[in-house]
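@channel anyone free to eyeball this complex?
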Amino acid sequence: MKYYDKLIFELSKEGRCGYSLPVNKFPAAPEVPQQLRRQAPLRLPEVSEPDVVRHYTNLSQMNFGVDTGFYPLGSCTMKYNPKINEEVAALQGFAGLHPLMHAGLTKGANKVYQEMNKALAAITGMYTFTFDPCAGAHGELTGLMIMRTYHMMRGDMARTKVIVPDSAHGTNPASAAVCGLEVVEVKSLENGRIDVEALKPLLGPDIAGIMMTNPNTLGLFETEIKTIAKLVHDCGGLLYYDGANMNPLMGVVRPGDMGFDIMHLNLHKTFSTPHGGGGPGSGPVGVAKHLEDCIPDLRVSGFHGNFGVILRAYAYILALGKDHLRQVGQYAVLSANYIKECLKDVYKLPIEGVCKHEFVFDGLINDGAHDDVPGATTLDVAKRLLDYGFHAPTIYFPLLFHQALMIEPTETESKETIDTFIEVMRKIAAEAARDPNILHDAPHNAPITRPDETMAARNPILKYEW
Amino acid sequence: MSKILDGLKYSESHEWVKVDGTVAFIGVSDFAQKEMGDITYVDMPEEGDDVLAGEEFGALESVKASSELISPVSGTVVAVNSELEDAPEKVNEDAYGAWIIKVEMSNPGELDKLLDAAGYKALIGE
Amino acid sequence: MATLPYLPHTQADIRAMLDRIGAKQLDDLYSDVPSEFLKKGAYALPDALSEQEIRDFFAALEAQNARLKVFVGQGAYDHYTPSVIPYLTQRSEFLTAYTPYQCEISQGTLRYIFEYQTLMCELTGLDVSNASMYDGPTAAAEAMKMAVSCARKKNRVLLSKALLPHVIKVVETYAKFHGVEIGYVPAPDGQTSLEALQAELAQDDVAGVIVPSINRYGIIEDHSGFADAIHAEKGLLVEYCDPSALAVVNTPGEWGADIAVGDGQPLGLPLCYGGPYVGFMTVKKEHMRKMPGRIVGQTVDKQGRRAFVLTLQAREQHIKREKATSNICSNESLMALWVTIYLSLMGPEGLKEVNKISADGAHYLKAELLKTGQFQDVFPDKPFLKEFVLKPKKFPGQLQKKLEEAGFFAALDTEEGYVSFCVTEKRSKEECDQLVKVVKEG
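replying in thread with the prediction:
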């Protein structure tokens, strides 16, 4: 990767153009009336097609993707994105469909939704899915709307609180707030699981439900799920499953069987669609049979959700079939446990035992702090990994640990890649013990060194000044 | 070692209060600004807003964190330190010079519940 | 069972890894799961398909969809896509990256988002843009929440009844659960009524007003006096816009708007049955910290070189949790890249030309359709660009069917009993003539 310091505006030269349009054969329409016309000059780049291609190619070369290398970003499930999925999504018979065409014109698209619905129901044990949500957080919001609708339809208006574990993804409480629900936090035990005794007193007639991630954000299976489900259901609440961590359960465990009433899936995590640098995603929401009637009136996005993403996920499911589903979950879990075992003598493992698809270290065992040289932090380890050609794990989340380093390898990485990663992680630990400054100054080999984020936030420059 | 000024009152959530008649100047302690690191933004109320003792009146932001500001007293905001809008670093530079809001107190008796310098020193354990 | 090419594990690898972990078999890795929850029996899924079978399967499925010339807009516009865009957006460094958390190896993503923010500010005439939202309707819903948050004590947001139907529905859904009251401003003459708006504002409870720059009838609205009336009541003016059309019509900034939202789809995104599209939001500087979503800012690295980072993150869910400005995190980054490349290629002249051809085509088609005698003009004096409505003299179902059979998706019926048409630069004069011929014969 090399540093390239241009913005498209800086390539602009008056009179250049990068477009080709047909000759206008229509008679001229009346001009837009003066008082409705744009007054300001329109400053857009004036660049040729080769300028544009080279500029964005250069930009791409400062980026790291799954196709570049190992991307063990916890909770993000950065698995390989199959290329046949892209081919399918680009088919003109799908890409050219107008969203307001009636069902008679879109039979192929309808079938994609129907078959995806069946497949996701089979994989999760839910009854039916809505595909409108465009991302995981959007799915959470939609799922909570369904939760509230369920209670409202029963005339139970008092259920305005939702329980969220302290280890939850930040989107959980944020989605609850957008949905008009009050968040009640439940603590985790020392072993990283929800404290059932702390949960009990929170339950009552004002509880709409609980949002859970299982395995949770520490990668640990919530072993008390049966008790939790019973307690929440007995108090009249519903169980919401945050599907961000569904990958290890693929082919092995179904949220529906564990008692969850509502869930979302991240098709861009578990179902292999590319993350696109932060979207587009897709966050379909599934419900149990008794909630089927709560979906229809909810319009949470413009048309039918991110159809192009749903198509990709469907191609993936067809490639998996019933034959390979279980391998996805099992191999993801195998790789995570393997890395954990190979590194826990140099990185602090706060909670022992088998993990699922990911696990969390709490920083280095020996951070190398001496005299007035501060020790190497999780941030330093993350930045040093970039030097060795790996993406960093998720850092400083979950908030339960101060130096959280959350590693999720996924099932599409080979043992060789994982072994190299382990070797590098050990090397970094050794470097930290010897001279933490090597880590403090990392990355050394990336297109840029560490940027001044404080300056960016204090004096925001959020657009190019012409 | 954080600086603690004698003669100020302190809350357990690390705000300081300087009393001038019925008006309270409120800021955050040197300990708090150190804990926070480089402050990038101070979210302040508007003049005329009411604040309640023990309730949030704004927030300090750094690059990776946001910390609530809790009012040590109740009353009406009579001024906000608009200097901090463009120069939040002043809180880092001089935590006791950089007052955040001025409050016309509705219940000066609340001051008695706050810590003095010695009490605050004990609280932060330095 | 054939191996899946996405899984590199050999049996020897699996054995070696299990040994290192100290497990006998893969199932042992689930020993913490109560056995009653371990799925027994096969999943109700089809057998795995090979790549060629997948290709054939989708080819057959694709053939079941109609392939029609699109003469309908209503929130999704069939504009031309330069071939450079899919080529570049498919580059795997863009496609397979996550949100740019590790900025040192994400400068590509961060730079194009910065460019995108600049372009959206330029089009809308406002100060600050976020990195994108899901789509236009959800961006409008976020603007609704933002208006309430800025107004603090007021809790009612007004929607123009001339907004596109799907925008109204999504905002209503969000409002219902967020606890925001919704009011409506009618558009009796095909234009949001200022008098009706003033009457609503007089109730002193309005936090914000969402109006369409170009409305559901295709009419370019005149918002003279809107901002003053709304600001006098300390509310926010939100303009819902077609960003392509902002090349030629008044910008939200020129109307005095506080927030601009809309869908970036008209900027060369394929129709794709409704998504992925890309919502956009730009705001006046004073509302920057209330804005939802990611924002990219410029700074320098340790060597003083220009660098870009995600900034103002203290607004966001991963820091503020339930107090965040929104729950949005991942958005539609790749589609923002799409829009950025589109605008770079088209430039000012290209974008104006797109509007010119589309508007000329739409005016031509409208005139020709009226000549058939089968329609009444609904809003004869109102200015429009690429989209318009007519009132059919006969029941529209038969007409649509005829048009479909002839290869056109056109004359979409609306709630008001009109039929809606749209012409983009992709539609030729010959196609317009053919469409009119079908209407005449019908």
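from a first look: Chain A is about 35% helix and 10% strand.
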